[in-house]
Amino acid sequence: MARAGWRARTPAGGEERRRLGTLKAAFFFFASISAWYSGYLLAELIPEVSLTRAVYGFRNIAEKPLLKAPTPKRQKCDHWTPCPLNTYAYRLLSGGGRDKYAKICFEDELLIGEKTGNVGRGINIAIVNYNSGLMATFIQSAPPKSLLFMVTQDDGASGLKEDAKKVIEALGSKQIRNIKFRSSWVFLTAKGFELPADIQRENINHSDNARNRYSGWPAEIQIEGCIPKMPS
Predict the structure, then answer these.
(1) Is the whole-model pTM more than 0.70?
(2) Phi/psi class of residue 117: alpha, beta or left (left: φ > 0; alpha: ψ in -120 to 50)?
């Protein structure tokens, strides 16, 4: 009898599962119809022109060129910033290695350098006279109110005589007697007037095989700045 009771309940269970399946199918059908109708209403309510404008706007954004920082304006003698009014720009650069030539630039004019073809081994000197203009030759008896720029190329010590040391020392150099074989040295001085106290006047870098930038030569060095146009 237990077996007969079990068979009597089997048809009822199958019928319940079929009803659940029918309900699920009806639910999915209704959900599909609702989704389609919602999409239809959305398309009808949103104008086509607005969609077109939106797409066009996104396209314009993509096609607009990227903003770039303006190219920095080149300053006299390759300064990073321009000199103040009523001053002269200058830059002294010692030689370095075999291919790095010394340079002396004044008011964006290259007085001594590779391009001018007047760089020589030793100490290169350019004189700027406030009264008579620019000169690129060393003149021991420089006229009053003159600027003197000095830079080394390759080796400035071997041919340096005692009388030259005394003349340069009298102009205010503190390092002229410390120059060694292939030292990099730059020096700025004036005759007949005083330079501003805050101007760097001299710089030196000695050859050292343990830290040389080039084989047998130290790194080039420089000083740069701005000098008043009317010396005191």
Answers:
(1) no
(2) left
